[in-house]
Amino acid sequence: MDIIAPEIDRYLHNRDWELCVDEKTRELTLSLFKELQTLKIIGDDEYRSIWLTVPRGTMEDYGDWEEAVRYGDVSSRKEFEKEWLDWYPDPVKWYKLSAVHWRGWYSIVVNGRLVLQIQPEEERRKYPEDRSDLAKGLLSALKETIESVIAGTYNAFVRENLPYGKRRGRILREDFWNIYSGEKEAYLEKMTQDDIARFVKLMSEQPERSPEGRLHEMTARKYFEYCRLGYMANDYEKSGELSAKELYLKHADGRDEGLRDLIPDSAEEFVAWYDGPDRRGGHPWEVCRGGNSTHVSLYVAKDERGWWLALAGSSYGRSIETIKFFLALYDAGIPILIRDGKELADMICGRDFIGIVSEDVFPRYCSEWFPGENMLSYMNLPHEERDEVIKASYWYPIEEDVRLEEEIQNFPPE
Predict the structure, then answer these.
(1) Which of 122, 163, 286, 292 is the most buried (most CB within 10 A)?
(2) Peptide linkage before 412 cis (omega within 30 of 0)
(3) pLDDT for residue 414
C-alpha cells in the first residue's frame, strides 16, 4: 500500500469542481480507469464505485507534534496524540472511490469530492497540477481491493466491516431524545402541552390539498397583517412596536418582487401583481428568512372559490416557529394549510424518524437516500454517545454488490 489516510484527506479538504492534471498524473489516472474496467458498470456514464480501506499511518504521518505545540495548536504531545486518534480512531479509514467517463472527461471522485480529472484537450484551460502521488496511491489501493473482488471476498467484507459512519440508518426521535438529556426540553420549551395536543389534533383533521374556508379578497395590507400575527406569536424583535409592513420588511427575505410597493388596500392591484408576468425569481413569501432549507414561507394561493394561505417550514430548527405561526393564523380564523403537517405533528411528539446518512453526505435534502419514507430531518452519526445511537438505530442492509465485468473492453476506447 503506497498511500495513507492523511495524504488522501489533504486533497479532500480542497473542493475542486474542475481539475487539469499534468501528463504524469494523466497517465496514472488512465491506469486507474483501466483497472476499473475489471468491474461491472453500475450506472450511467460508465459509473463504477468501490470501497477502499487505507491505513491511517502513524502519528508522525498525521503531523509534527512539536510544531503544533510551538504554534499553540495543542499544549502537549499527549494532546496531539488525542487529536490524531479523534480524527483516525481506527487502524484503517474507508474511502468510496467512484469513476465516471463522459464525452472525453474522466473523473475520479473520493468520498464525494473530485480528486482527479482528465479533460478533453480543447477544454483544458488551467495550469496542469501534479497529483501523481495521489493517483499512484489510489491505484495501488484499488489493485489490492480488486484482488479481493476477484477472490470473491470483497462484498462480504464490506457488509461485515463497513463503519456505521459510512452507512445509512434511521432513529426514532424519542429514542434520540432519550440519549441526549435535555434535547427534548430545549426543543419544546416554547410550546405548551395544550398547544402540542391541539396541533396534533388539527393535523389529524387537516385536508389533503387546501383548507376548507376561503378569503373573498387579498391585499398587501392583509398579507402583512397575517405575517404580523406569526411574528408576534414567536416574539420576533420589535413585533409589538413596528407596523405589520415594517415587521415584514425587517424579518422577510427582502426580495419581495414589488409587494411592498402595492397600494395597501387595493385588491385589484394585488390580483394584477399576483397574476402578472413579471412576478418571478423573487421570494415574496419567504417571511422568516433563512437558508435554502431553514426559512419559513407563507404562500398565497387562490382558486375559483377564493384565497387561502399555505405555510411551509419543516426544518427541525424552525419547526416550532412554523407551528406557532400556524396556530396564530388558525386562531384568527384565517384559512390556512401547513405543509408536512402530519410529519410536524409526529416530530413534536418524537414519533418521527431521523435519517442517518454517511459522514461524507451533508445532511440536507437527503430524501433520495430514503425512498418511500417521508422524513423531515437528517443527520450524520454523532461522535458523542455514538455507541448508544448506533445501538438505538435501525441500519439498512448494504445491498450494493461490486461484480466483475464478464467481457472487459479495450481501454482507452478507440
Answers:
(1) 286
(2) yes
(3) 53
From first CA to last CA, the distance across the chain in angstroms is 32
Supply the mean pLDDT for the chain: 93
pLDDT recorded at residue 408: 73
Whole-angstrom distance, CA of residue 175 vs CA of residue 186: 16
Say how far apart CA 407 and CA 74 lie, in whole Å. Answer: 54
Give CA 94 to chain center in angstroms. 21
Residues contacting residue 369 through CB under 8 Å, at least 6 positions apart: 168, 355, 357, 361, 378
3-state secondary structure of 78: helix
β-sheet with 286-288: strand ranges across: 286-288, 296-303, 306-312, 336-338
**Which residues are paired to 274 by β-bridges?**
none
Which cell goes with 304? 375559483
The grid coordinates of residue 76 equal: 502537549
How many whole angstroms separate alpha carbon 304 and alpha carbon 319? 31
Contact 352, 377 (CB under 8 A): yes
- Per residue in 304-359, pLDDT tens? 999 999 999 999 999 999 999 999 999 999 999 999 999 999 999 999 999 999 99
